[in-house]
Design a protein that fits this description.
Length: 375
C-alpha cells in the first residue's frame, strides 16, 4: 500500500509539473485539435478544385458536351486555350490538366475510328495527378457513351456491376485521415510527454531529490506512466468526441469503451518507449533526434499512412513485432468497422504481451540509469 501511495502522489506531482509547462500543454492541445482538423480538411485524398484547360480543335457538339461535364467541386471551370499556350501554362503551373481535342474528333467517333484524345498532366502535384487521371478518363468515356446511346443499351444487359463502398459510403478522406491523425498523435504524445518529464527532472535537478527519498525506480517510472497516460486518454476522448464526431461530422461505428481499453494497453508500451529514449538522451535536443529516428518511422509504417500489405514482405514481418502496428489495426477495426472483442482480441493480446515485455526492459534500463546517477 505504501508503494501505491508513492506512485499516486508522484503521479499527481507529474500532473502539476505538466500544468506549469506551457510548451507541452500547447503541443498537447494542438495535437488533439488543430492537427486532427487540418489533417482531415487539408490533406485530402480526393480530387478537389483541380485546374483544367482545354484545346478544342474540333468545336463539335460532342467536344462541348465533354467540356461541360468537368464540374465543381472536382474541377475548376475549364479554360479554353490554344495549342501554343499549353507548354507555357504547364510550365507556370497554371493548369494541372490540359485536354486536347483533335480536329474531326466527333466525326471519327461516329465513324467508329476510335480517335485519340491527348491529356497533359502536371505530375508534380502527384496525388492530384494520379487521382485526376481516373476522373478525366471516366468523364470522357461516360459522355462519349451517352452521346452514342450506349447508356440505354446497358439497361438491357444481363449483368450490371454495382459497386458498394463498405464503412465509408461516400469515400470521404476525412473519415480516415482524422482518426488516423488522432492515433498518430497518441503515439507521439505518449513518447514525448514521458520522455520530456524525465529529462526535465534531470535538467532541473529534481531527480536527485527523488533519489534521496525512500522511493524505488519502479515507483518513479510508474508514476510518470500513469500520469501521462491519463492526460493522453482524456485528450483522445475529447478529440474523438468534439473534433472528430462533432466538428468534422465523422461517425464512429464501434464501441468507444473498447477502443479506450485497447488504448490503455498500448500506452504501457508507448510511455515506456518514451522513458527508454530519455535514458539514452542527455538533453532534449538529443531526445528529439532519437524521436525522429525511432518514433516517426514507427508511425509511418504501422498501417496508418499506407496499408501494411503494400510494404515489402521483410518489412511487414518486422512491423508485426511493433505494438503500434496492432494498435492501428484494432483502432481501424473498432472505430471504422464496429468490430467487437471477439474480433480484436488477438491484437489486444499482442499489444499487451509486447508492451509488457518492453515495459519490463525499459524498467531495467531506467533502474540502471538511476543507479548511475546515485553512484
Amino acid at each position: 500500500m505504501d508503494s501505491v501511495k508513492n506512485i499516486f502522489h508522484l503521479g499527481v506531482k507529474e500532473l502539476f509539473s505538466l500544468r506549469r509547462d506551457p510548451v507541452l500543454l500547447a503541443l498537447m492541445v494542438w495535437s488533439f485539435s488543430l492537427s486532427v482538423y487540418t489533417a482531415a480538411t487539408g490533406m485530402t485524398h480526393d480530387l478537389h478544385n483541380a485546374s483544367i484547360a482545354v484545346v478544342d480543335e474540333d468545336r463539335s457538339q460532342l467536344s462541348r458536351r465533354i467540356i461541360d461535364a468537368f464540374l465543381p467541386p472536382f474541377f475548376q471551370q475549364p479554360q479554353e486555350i490554344t495549342y501554343g499556350e499549353i507548354d507555357r501554362g504547364m510550365d507556370s503551373g497554371d493548369y494541372t490538366f490540359v485536354l486536347v481535342f483533335p480536329p474531326r474528333f466527333e466525326a471519327d467517333v461516329l465513324a467508329g475510328r476510335r480517335p485519340a484524345l491527348q491529356v497533359n498532366i502536371d505530375a508534380t502535384a502527384m496525388m492530384q495527378a494520379g487521382i485526376g487521371e481516373g476522373y478525366v478518363s471516366r468523364i470522357i468515356s461516360q459522355e462519349v457513351r451517352r452521346y452514342l446511346g450506349y447508356e440505354r443499351e446497358a439497361e438491357t444487359r444481363p449483368a450490371v456491376l454495382e459497386a458498394r463502398y463498405a464503412f465509408n459510403p461516400n469515400v470521404e478522406s476525412p473519415w480516415f485521415t482524422s482518426v488516423m491523425q488522432m492515433v498518430n498523435s497518441v503515439t507521439m504524445l505518449s513518447i514525448v510527454l514521458t520522455g520530456a518529464a524525465l529529462i526535465r527532472e534531470r535538467e532541473h535537478g529534481t531527480i536527485e531529490h527523488l533519489l534521496v527519498m525512500p522511493l524505488t525506480p519502479f515507483e518513479i517510472m510508474m508514476a510518470k506512466v500513469w500520469a501521462n497516460a491519463l492526460v493522453i486518454l482524456v485528450g483522445a476522448a475529447l478529440c474523438l468526441g468534439l473534433i472528430i464526431e462533432m466538428l468534422l461530422q465523422v461517425p464512429v461505428a464501434g464501441s468507444r469503451s473498447l477502443f479506450f481499453a485497447g488504448l490503455t494497453l498500448y500506452l504501457f508500451f508507448a510511455t515506456a518507449l518514451g522513458i527508454f529514449l530519455a535514458t539514452l538522451a542527455r538533453s532534449m535536443p538529443q531526445f528529439g533526434l532519437l524521436f525522429m529516428l525511432v518514433a516517426l518511422p514507427m508511425m509511418l509504417l504501422s498501417g496508418g499512412e499506407t496499408p501494411i500489405e503494400s510494404q515489402p514482405e521483410w518489412l511487414q514481418a518486422v512491423m508485426q513485432a511493433v505494438p503500434s502496428t496492432h494498435f492501428v489495426a484494432f483502432s481501424q477495426a473498432i472505430l471504422f468497422r464496429n468490430a467487437g472483442l471477439d474480433v480484436v482480441w488477438p491484437q489486444f493480446a499482442l499489444v499487451a504481451g509486447m508492451g509488457a515485455l518492453f515495459f519490463t526492459f525499459a524498467a531495467f534500463r531506467f533502474r540502471a540509469a538511476i543507479a548511475v546517477m546515485q553512484s
